[in-house]
Specification:
CATH superfamily of the largest domain: Enolpyruvate transferase domain
CATH topology of the largest domain: UDP-n-acetylglucosamine1-carboxyvinyl-transferase, Chain
Bound molecules: uridine-diphosphate-N-acetylglucosamine
Number of strands: 24
Number of helices: 14
Structural class: alpha/beta
Amino acid sequence: MSSKKIVVNKSLNLRGTVKVAGAKNSTLAILAAIVCVGEPCIIENVPDISDVSLMCRILSKLGVEIDMVGKNSIKVDPRNINLTCANFDEMRHMRASYYLLSALLSRFGEASVAMPGGCDFGLRPMDQHVKGFEALGAECETVGGITSVKCKHLKGGRVYLDVISVGATINTMIAAVRAEGTTIIENAAKEPHVVDLANFLNTCGADIHGAGIDVITVNGVKSLKGATYQIIPDQIEAGTYMAASVAARGNILITNVIPKHLESISAKLREVGGEIEYFEDSVRVSCSQKKLRRCNVKTMPYPGFPTDMQPQMVALLSICDGTSMVTEGVWESRFRYISELRRMGAKVSVDGRMAVIEGVRELVGTNVKSVDLRAGAAVVIAGLIAEGTTCIENINHIERGYEDIVGKLSNLGVDIKAVTEVPREKVLTA
Ligand code: UD1
């Protein structure tokens, strides 16, 4: 087996244009939801990332036909699904595979799904998903790592989510879309991809109101029809390039974005000294300050500062003047990557859900690991601003959610490449 690494050299003054891909989290939810639509759909602006390939593999195993019909467009035909039990190894590598629970339940009245993996941020419970399914009349049980849901005739109900959960909101919405009567989801998540999924389902004939506010109402419909739908741009990929531009004192245009989705990120980047200008579907991010300023950040559900931007922000704050505090308000354990930044000279201490970052004058390149998807993006940003060379291992995590990050950063003038290391024994026997 060969292992791929990213090698990045200090590269200030990023210049040029970078185009953001379609949103990972929207795509994964929409691909799963097509199972409950039951008819062929064409999805455009699909990001070329490994999580999407994984979801396509899982769907194929269920009997869904998937064809590329354009560079970033796929045709998904779920008519010949022949399984309601998705117990494949692939499921364990991706959190979003649990959307198949609601999608299969809605279409076939039952589903069994292997418990998902994804990034390790500590406990990732599913009690709110279960609450949603039960409110619609389903019976749920988890045995030996497999969750099963069953209900021959789903009926609309009222669900109050005890915690704001993207996954539970989406699973309940999908389960409710063809249930009899009306479902009300209170304290719903408002993330852009929740809204994108609702828009997709409405394009297919669903009757969903309120996505993007706290209370979502789903009036069940008898059937749905296939549609062509374009995925929204990825908020987190855009935010990552924004943070990179500020950290590396760049001046770049980021295209294919929805500026409204970037407000909390822009607010914090302005606080540290970045300049951000919004256009209709692009944003210019520059920074001409010699010294960047500290700031405090607390991650929260949308429209708060996204937890998926927390590691990238910590990488930036590690070279800001003064002491910053970052509080993780969503996940109990999302600072595992700090040890990698410390290896590069960052001064960060962690106490529970809070990281205290004492800004240093510079970071120093060394060998580091990408411990999860966004942590990988954080070490890439750190690599841009660190003296010398940074060599990043385990980049499969980064490839899960960033389309061609090496090509995109190279276009912005970054000295970066992906290298494949062939193990020694292979060289000797070749
Ligand atoms: C989604 C995103 C992930 C992002 C997260 C928060 C996808 C594929 N992933 O994850 O990138 O970091 O939203 O914005 O869209 N919780 C419960 N019980 C539940 C479900 C969740 O207590 O049944 C808690 C979790 O432990 C966590 C919080 O709710 O503390 C948020 O989780 P949730 O919004 O469900 O995250 P995901 O949908 O898994």
